[in-house]
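Re-running the complex after MR caught last week's input typo. The corrected sequence lines follow. Everything else is unchanged.
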Amino acid sequence: MNDRLLQSALFLDKFRVLIIFILLLFVASMVSDVFFTVTNLMNVLRQVSIVGIIAVGMTLVILTSGIDLSVGSVMAVTGAVAAGILTAGFPLPVVIVLTLVAGLVIGAFNGVVIAKGNVPPFIATLAMMVIARGVTLVITGGSPTVISDATYRFIGGGRILGIPFPVILMLGIIAVMYWVLKNTTFGRNIYAVGGNEEAARLSGINVTKIKISVYALTGMFAAVSALIYTSRLMSAQPNAGQMLELDAIAAVIIGGTRLTGGKGGVIGTLIGALIMGVLDNILNLANVSPFYQDIAKGLVILVAVLLDSKLSKIGK
Amino acid sequence: MSLLTLKDVHKSFGPVQVLEGIDFELNRDEIVALLGENGAGKSTLMKIIAGVHSPSSGKLLLEGKEVAIQSPKHSQQLGISIIHQEFNLLRDMSIAENIFLGRMKKNRFGTVDWKRMFSETEVLLKRVGIGHLSPKQLVMECSIAEQQLIEIAKALSFDANILIMDEPSATLNNEETDNLMQLMKELNEQHIGIIFITHRLEEVFRVADKAVVLRDGHLIGERRVTDTDKDEIISMMVGRELKDIYPERNIQSGDNLLDVSSLSVKGKLHDVNLTLRKGEILGVAGLMGSGQTALSKAMFGLLSIESGEVRINGTSVRSPQQAISEGIALLTDDRKSEGLVLELSVAENILMPNYRTISNRGYLPKKKMKTIVNQWIKELSIKTSTPEVEVRTLSGGNQQKVVLGKWLETKPQVLILNEPTRGVDVGAKSEIYKLIKNLADEGMGIILISSEMPEILGLSHRVLVMNEGRITGELDIHEATQEKIFAYAVGGENG
Ligand SMILES: Nc1ncnc2c1ncn2[C@@H]1O[C@H](COP(=O)(O)OP(=O)(O)OP(=O)(O)O)[C@@H](O)[C@H]1O
Ligand SMILES: [Mg+2]
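Corrected-run output:
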């Protein structure tokens, strides 16, 4: 291969997610002329935020070559907790803090089982997925808990300078985690653990601590999404967040983070989540039946990942 | 007749030019030694023959006919068998499965013929001198030297007529190397052409017919071994003369730094006692699997101790984190699975154990990191285009230097070195030896484990010899000789 070709292949390799995203935007603008309106774009962003925030945690977990299947259920259970203590009359700041702590604790529990108990992440979080769902049903009694505190609506529905608050939350979390991954010991250690756990351990990195931290953070991000979700609906739903773990994993993988760990980042995940969001949006705008929407979404995930591995081969 | 000919071969990886205009010839009945500094392009050239890389330009002829090798599989079919510098064994599989990977023997029902695979594996293992291993044993449980010999056994099983070995002896000790050299001669008598790469030049004069030297991707020259000597080869390799590989030894008499008392680890170590003084270089010698690696890991808190303890600064070491915070560093002999994160950059690998000391409450100052990384790249002459490239793209010897830099930067009180110069060229070796000696002079205690006897004899103040997990002898450097060490290593006077 000559140099010019190789250089452009390397370029493609680096920005391939972005290129796929731009292609999709192009298609979107052809499908509907409503797509490129501010209202619609803000809508897309807001809809993406719940998955996007959870996917940030999922990125950290996958970077350590783990997986977290419990995020959807954790979102449901922390949502139920939030609605419960809010209706019990606690002030809003306390509710927020307690909800986040609940998510953190559940996530940390996952982490401890995985890192200290040596249980494969898939199994540990699968168990938590079922347990947390069960607990949600117990707390809610199987039917939605309605929230009446009007100020609570701001979390999911408010705007600052015209930008939906959930979008600000998502972008803020992504910016912070991007910085953390790049510039802190914790961030760099995450990559080391995912790239070669043994080498990391021998380098004196506290692998157990890193693992517990990433699952704990993921739990906390699930709780952030729970606040947004319950605020949007002004109620906690017993079946909230079903299949959400799959959307989050898809966003991470489409975003170019390697499923076996050690490689990737949160910016890719943002784009991955946006790709899925835009796709939903186009299919809605084009009035495609929900049944076909799932098929189309699955196919696009497949194509995106296939394209990804093809392009990365050219780069070699 | 010429078995293999390369004509004007070029190879570049992106903008990095690695080989330029290489001509090369291997005849039947010939053993060719391919030599050169770390990063000279030796492995790359061999990978072209093995179908791993395709050349950017140039011709490859087999028995006079031009061929374009498409893939590793194609190369195998053409009768070429290669042992790569970095092992390609599946650690969770048995030795037999590894040897017959992708070409499992089948019986007449079409299912796997385990019996035949095991018996053929047994024969192969015997041939390379590890007949004591069971074909069913998992590769994970084998030492690095054993893994190297398994790779050799695997290469033999192909019945190739060209055999390429990339640094086969880098982790082997004298006896294993002798065995390997013997094997090479036998194979050569059966008309198998052999190319081997080594940084241990005495091997060249023992088995090779011809030496070919590369430097910076250029062919510097080739010599019949009967017409040349070590000095000429070295000056062809490094472009200058090299005197005194080993630095002058200083006399040391520091305080005790580290104490190991009646240390036992189930099945690996029995009642080991040793003390390491400040400023001392303590060599640990022994045959393959005699417990040096286990000892190094136990001192670093990696093995569960049955009885006894490792004490430093009055604390007993129980975990790697504790070992590191007490000032112990361990360079393991397995750089691929224990030393490096291959997909991370050179910089990140060097910094990995050092983040805690560099960081400012978790935040990593960029400038400081850059200075540290650049210093080691320079000091160890690590050949890399930038510090940001993935460490896996570096040549084997340069990867080893990265591991060294990573541990030297931790500035430990006790540095345990297990095969520190594996795959490092002679020029860089002498630099590294100087570095090690200077560190000792500054008060660091160093434990040196090496399969290379001259390295132990050239650097240590004192030598311990191990056999089957016990220390069977201790020699002051003035009385230590290869013969005495060997006598202790095989069970010796006490055993
Ligand atoms: N996949 C790759 N991508 C980029 N550069 C590479 C790649 N493989 C090798 N190189 C570069 O090619 C050069 C030659 O490497 P090679 O592995 O052939 O050296 P070598 O002579 O075998 O050295 P050593 O004695 O250390 O094993 C090195 O500078 C290395 O960084
Ligand atoms: Mg090499």
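None of the earlier attempt is carried over here. Chain A has a mean pLDDT of 90. The pocket of magnesium ion (ligand 2) is lined by residues B 42-43, 85, 166, 395-396 (CB under 6 Å).
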